[in-house]
Amino acid sequence: MARVVHQTKPVAINPLKSSQPLGAAFAYLGVNGAMPLFHGSQGCTSFALVLFVRHFKETIPLQTTAMDEIATILGGADHLEEAILNLKNRTKPSLIGICTTALVETRGEDFAGDLVKIKAKRAEELAGTEVVLSSTPDFDGAIEEGWAKAVTSMIEGVTIAGERPRDPKKIAILPGWHLTVADIEHIRETVESFGLTPVILPDVSGALDGTVPDRWIPTTYGGTKVEDIRTLGECFQAIAIGEHMRGPAEALQTRTGVPYTLFQQLSGMKATDRFITMLAMISGNPVPAKIRRRRAQLQDALLDGHFHFGGKRIAVAAEPDHLYQLSTFFAGLGADVAAAVTTTGTSRILQKVQTEVVQVGDLADLEAMAQAADVDLIVTHSHGRQAAERLGVPLMRVGFPIFDRLGSQHKLTVLYEGARDMIFEAANIFQSNQHQPTPEELNPFRNRETDNDSRPTSFTRH
């Protein structure tokens, strides 16, 4: 069991985490026709927007209530109402997802009460648009919490309450924030290969998959349809991926009676076997041949790759669930997770991370721990590149944001194929950075001492 060490520094140096409202906006971006709305200043929104654009290299729909000094003091209900109406009139979204920021949260306003009044007062004008709210102050939590809160708000605010007749072929998938576009696409295809219909919430694979529409669309395009969110109660089973998705899954079960199964990660052989077995049991169909073949490919990759992982020391910095996934992956191949840093210390999954100590901190903590442990590989997002350069250690880029490489959203990390690809990526990094001895180092006589007659007087074996 890992021991969690909380942060004591007064400031963050080279921050690791991104904010809760960014995580909530990320989830809203996975809904078709949605518009995330930051309730705060323009600066809060601009920072998140820059990270999204640099990571995905796409146009990101993101708006703000643009709170100024007077509104911050007197209250922002009027700004919130005006922003909602402007978005409705100009972009006609199917869903407006409100993410609060630290600026308005510190004032202690009743956002939920204000939104109820706005929706009642403007019911006719807002017809056809769902408006949901997530309380996501910047000073608390990180991407994980914001994502989970946004998904919960959509379930509690949009999904029809009460038990309904359930379709035995319909499965709700609640993916964690750390699953890439490629991961979600792969999960959908896998579920469909069993003759099942997946309803994925949120589905960033439809909205952030790098396609170019034939016309300008001011909102998200692709992703989960609002009508599918409304009818989640018709699903036979819900599958949540990541410990932070337990809350949304429980909210769905409470609201509709749909049972859920939680997978804490889907990058290992055992977890994937359990996932595939569950799909086969629900569908009543045998495992397709292509999935069996992918499993055999992973077995071969494990045999080929484990030689490169044995004895390697790894430093990992990531959000709690992502940290658990990565530590399980490396430890399962024989590597030692010698340094582990995360963003928040509240997740129950941290105690299961495959290491002795998990430090809640920043990338400066990771650099110090990596240097002390003499690691062979650093695993984190693109902001870790300076630390890797200073230490002379290769960097494996994971998570968010990755802005100095193309195609990060299309990297596969889950199920048999994703685990296979991760083995190859890490093993290739090890191979390309291993020390090659020179001919002088291989010469056993290089350190011998000779006298004037060139006869050896001492000999050191190497």
UniProtKB/TrEMBL annotation:
Residues 431-462 are annotated as: Disordered. SUPFAM superfamilies: Helical backbone' metal receptor. Pathway: Cofactor biosynthesis; Fe-Mo cofactor biosynthesis. The keyword tRNA-binding does not apply. It comes from the Bacteria. Keywords: Nitrogen fixation. Pfam families: Oxidored_nitro. Residues 19-430 form the Nitrogenase/oxidoreductase component domain. Belongs to the NifD/NifK/NifE/NifN family. This protein may play a role in the biosynthesis of the prosthetic group of nitrogenase (FeMo cofactor). This is Nitrogenase iron-molybdenum cofactor biosynthesis protein NifN. The gene is nifN.
